[in-house]
TrEMBL record:
GO cellular component: chloroplast; ribonucleoprotein complex; ribosome
Gene Ontology BP terms: translation
SUPFAM superfamilies for this protein: S15/NS1 RNA-binding domain
SMART domains named in the record: Ribosomal_S15
An annotated Gene Ontology molecular function: structural constituent of ribosome
Oligomer and partners: Part of the 30S ribosomal subunit.
Gene transcribed to yield this protein: rps15
Places the protein is found: Plastid, Chloroplast
Pfam families: Ribosomal_S15
Homology family: Belongs to the universal ribosomal protein uS15 family.
Protein name stated in the entry: Small ribosomal subunit protein uS15c
Taxonomic lineage: Eukaryota, Viridiplantae, Streptophyta, Embryophyta, Tracheophyta
InterPro entries linked to this entry: Ribosomal_uS15 (IPR000589), Ribosomal_uS15_bac-type (IPR005290), uS15_NS1_RNA-bd_sf (IPR009068)
């Protein structure tokens, strides 16, 4: 597996303070998603990793939906920082 560097968007001092915040959790899920995606590009038939990726994607989607309902400004800032697409509205 090729090692790639993921850029840390959240400053180090903020990481230590509030690890339970929605932004921090979404940031960690995004890091895991990017790592698993690069792994699955090499190992296409790794079905257990595919399942894990789908579970993490669902968790991140639920957290982003929660943040979107509670605080739209923080939500917009977060998806802008992490360079991810906006949730589809139902």
């Amino acid at each position: 597996m090729k090692k790639s560097s993921f850029i840390s968007v959240i400053p180090q001092e903020e990481k230590g303070k509030n690890r339970g915040s929605v932004e921090f959790q979404v940031f960690n899920f995004t890091k895991k998603i990017r790592r698993l995606t690069s792994h699955l590009e090499l190992h296409r038939k790794d079905y257990l990793s595919q399942r894990g990726l789908r579970k993490i994607l669902g968790k991140r989607q639920r957290l982003l939906a929660y943040l979107s309902k509670k605080n739209r400004v923080r939500y917009k800032e977060l998806i802008g920082q992490l360079n991810i697409r906006e949730l589809k509205s139902r």
